[in-house]
Design brief:
By secondary structure, the chain is mainly alpha-helical. The protein contains 9 helices and 2 strands, in the order E-H-H-H-E-H-H-H-H-H-H.
Length: 200
């Protein structure tokens, strides 16, 4: 990723000059400038803090141009693959828990995350796809709160179906819900990346 100084737009620099400058001004150069005899960790930390404050803007020189490329770029879609990994591990531990009782503690931990965090998390990511919309703590709190509302609602809907509230229908409905919402969230995130890069 190439950094760009946040106040460059205020200086009236042309897009052509800015793009040329981005080719020569890299994140590595910024870190080296900040080091000047100091520890590397402190320099990286200072660059990170400047990025958080908005005085430095990191610009990806080759952002994903479509949804498939977004999914394949792990630096963008890591959150999505983590959700799918937790989903898969939860389902595996639920069904092998009776065969291998040693996996029961893992089953409780993953089952708790699967029911008390993931449903709300994918909804929050779909509603607020831009990273700066919410602070990380707000995302966690909303994810837990919404999960506590969504899971009983899915259970209530299942109660009025022929399947009822049993293990397999609950796992299937929560899995379908999680996959659907996470794909919507990923699509919205990719659209925001496209819009931001077109505006530069």
């Amino acid at each position: 990723m190439y950094p760009s100084r946040g106040n460059r737009r205020d200086r009236g620099i042309s897009r052509k000059d800015r793009d040329k400058d981005l080719d020569t001004y890299t994140l590595e150069k910024i870190v080296r400038e900040k080091m000047s005899g100091r520890d590397l960790y402190k320099a990286i930390r200072e660059v990170y803090e400047d990025t958080r404050k908005g005085s430095i803007e990191l610009v990806d020189p080759a952002p994903p141009s479509n949804f498939i490329k977004y999914l394949l770029r792990i630096d963008y879609s890591l959150w999505l693959w983590c959700v799918y990994a937790i989903l898969a591990l939860t389902i595996i531990t639920i069904y092998i828990g009776n065969i291998y009782p040693i996996t029961s503690p893992l089953r409780y931990v993953l089952g708790s995350i699967f029911t008390l965090y993931i449903p709300g998390y994918v909804l929050v990511e779909a509603l607020y796809p831009y990273e700066k919309d919410l602070k990380p703590l707000e995302r966690v709190a909303l994810s837990i709160g919404l999960s506590l509302a969504i899971v009983p609602l899915i259970g209530l809907i299942l109660n009025y179906t022929p399947y009822g509230i049993r293990l397999n229908p609950i796992i299937a409905s929560l899995s379908i819900y999680t996959i659907a919402l996470s794909l919507i969230a990923a699509y919205r995130k990719q659209r925001i990346i496209t819009i931001i890069n077109k505006s530069r």
